[in-house]
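Researcher: Please translate sequence to structure tokens.
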Amino acid sequence: MAQKNIYEYDAKRLLARELPKYYPEFNYHNKLAVAECDTDIEQLIKENPWIDTEKVVVKPDQLFGKRGKANLLLLDANCDQMKQFCNDNLDRVCEIGEIRGQIKRLLIEPFIPHREEYYVSITSDRENDIIHFSFEGGIFIEEHWDSVAHIPIPLGTDISFFDLKSKLPDLGIFQDVVIAFIKGLFQVYVDQDFAFLEINPFAITEDKTIIPLDVKARLDDTALFLHQDTWGNPNQPIEFPAGFGQKMTEEEALIRDLDEKTGASLKLKILNKDGRIWTMVAGGGASVIYTDTIVDLGFGNELGNYGEYSGNPSREHTEIYAQTIIDLITAKPDP
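Model: Translation complete:
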């Protein structure tokens, strides 16, 4: 499994399309807009007139969390405040943790008034898909992790017959709504080959409508060819962006594009173009062992790359992968 992060915008659109198949009560507003550095904000408002008439939320959509703690979250804002926030932050360099990068992309959506915030996520291991749920969602979920219920679901289980009620805390008046929502979410997770899905938080309105507020997701990109009617559509495939602050070299971008076109796995990360030790290893586990060994022997500063090829790539793709590494090795004369 090769896990790839996707934008929050794409994750919400995928849920909006797929979740009603299993949880018909999911009536998402589908009001999402993205502002980038070259976006004409006035034109964006014309295309999404709700921005001018409703209070909105604006936040970066670049694969990093704790946006509220970083003062990069605008809540309950009018149109003028939204425009000012975009103007102040797009293309601005900021530091998230120890990573510096530019804000290149902002997600705009309606502000949903709510009192309580809930947490749900789904992860996987070798034997189970695991549902995680808590009443204490929001930016302090890590501090409240002991409040999270962890429910392993054996692989292949039909979730519609699984006794989820007895595994969850007392949900009160929202019991039927939350259980149906989580079961539907689980089916989307499995059917669409998610590798990780987190909604933190989601809110429940007075009329018992569930609204996902913040979503993080990773997909198993080796399953892309199985989902040509959704995120693997060859005419409009989902984007797998680089992490915040990361810039791909030409060679890394080439291998990533190859990787997205095959059910095999092709990975390349350039660590040091001037390095004198380069690897071309078959298998993700082997690549880790080789890299650790090189570092343990004291040659980490000479290591040129980290990568692997596995899953039976075609002869053509293997040749391109090999030639790319050879070109990198021979780019500079041996001193």
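Researcher: Any highlights?
Model: The mean pLDDT is 91.
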